[in-house]
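Contributing new records

If you add data, match the layout below exactly. Sequence lines come first and carry their own label; structure lines follow with theirs. Keep one chain per record. Anything else will be rejected by the validation script.
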Amino acid sequence: MNVQSVLRFPLTVLQYSGKGLSYIKSLIFKSDLNIDPNRLVGEELEAELAKVKKQSSQFKSASASEEKVDENKKLASFRYVVKNAMGETLKGVFDAEDITAVRVFLSNEGYEIVEIKPREKWDFDITIGSGRIKTGDLSFALIQLSTYIKAGIPLIDSMRILAKQTTNATLRRIYDKVIYELVIGEPFSVALEKQGGAFPLILINMVKTSEMTGDLAGTLDEMADYFTDTEKTRKEMISALIYPAVILVLCIGAVCFLIMFVVPQFIDMFSSQGAELPAITKFVIAASSFLGSYWWALILGILTVIFTFKWLYSNIKDFRKSMQIMMMKMPILGNTIIYGQVSTITRTFASLLNHGVFITDSMEILTNLTNNEVYKEILSRTLINLSKGAKLSETFKGEWAFPVVAYEMIVTGESTGQLALMMQKVSEHFGNLHHNAVTVIKSLIEPIVIIFLAIAVGFILMSIILPMFDLYGQI
C-alpha cells in the first residue's frame, strides 16, 4: 500500500458512504411515493407557507411585533465593574440606550459603581451554542420565580433575587436585561421576548396569556413541570445513545489492541517456522500491518467522515431530513424517535390550548420547537390547511410519522370539543411508549455488543490457532 492510496483513503470512504446513503435514501422514499402525490414538501411547502403568512392579518401582526422587538434591540453595549453589598467585585456587560441608563440601573440594583465604559469595536462576545438558557436552569429558575411571587414578592424584585444569586455570568446578564425592561415599564412577556431567543417561544406565549388571566405563578409552575419533563425525556434519549457508543468504542479499542500488539508476536513465530498461512490469518496480518503503519490515516478518515457528516447534518436541510427519515425507519430506534416527537408535540400543544393560545399560533410555536424536518413539514402543512378553513385532523391523516392512534384521538377531541384533553392523553400514552422503547434499547445493547466482541475476538483467535495446528502437524 503506497502513500498515495493512504492519502486517498478518507476521500474513498466519503465516496462509498455517499453511494450507500443514496441507495438507502432511494429505499426509504420509495415507500412514501404513493401516500399523496399532491402533498407539499420542501421548497414548495416553504413558498406556500410564506404566502399564507403574508396574506394572513394574524401573521402580519406577529411579524410587525417581531420587527418592533428587533428595533428595540439596537442598544449600545457597555462594560462595567461594580461592588455588591458584600464588597465583592463584579464585572459584566450591559446593553442600554446610553451610559446614564446603565449607571441609574446599577445604582438602583444596590451596586457600588467602580467603572462603566463603552465596549470597543473589537470587544465582542464569543457565543458557543444557541445562546438559549439550558432547560435545567430554566426549569429551576421558573420554580424559584413562582415561589417568590406566591410569597408576595413583586415580579421585579423576584427577578433581582434570581440575578444576584446566580454565579453564571451569562445568566446574570440575561436576568439583568429582563430587569431593565421591567424597570422601564415593559410587560414580562415582552422583556423575555427581547432577549434574543434566550427564552423558548412557548414560555413567552404562555406568559403573555397569563398576563391577561392574572395567573402568572400558576403558569410558571406549569412551565417548570413542562421543561422538567422535556429535560427528562432528552436525558433518557442521550443515555440510550451514550451507553452503546461507549461500549462500542471500548470493544473496538480491545480488538485494535489485539491486532496491533498481540497478533504481531505470533506473526514472527509463524515466519520463523515457514508455516503455510490460511486466508483468515493473512487477512488479520494485513490488518495488523495496516494499523501498525497507517493508524493515523484511519483516524484521519474517521474524523473526516464524522465532521463532514456533522457539517452536512447542520447545514444541508435535505441531508438532515434524509438522515432523520432513515433513523425513523429503523427497527426499534425509529419507534423511539417517533414516540418521543409525538409526545413532545402533543404535550406542548395541550399546554398552549389550555392557556388559550390560538391554534395557528400554537402550530407556529410547535414548528419552531422541533428540530425534526419531517414533523416541521407536517406542522407547516397543518398551518396552511388551517388558514384555508380545514380541520386540524385532516393534515395528520395518512402521515406515516404520526401514529393512527394519535390521529384518531385528535378526531375524537375535535368532535367532542375536548382537543386539549385528548392531546394530553396522547402525550401521556406516547410518553410511556417512549420510555419503554428506550428501556428496550438499553436491554438489547449489551447482548449485541457481547456478540460483536465474541465474533471479533473469535475471528482473531482462529487466525492464530489454525496455523498453529499446521505447525504441530508438521512435527
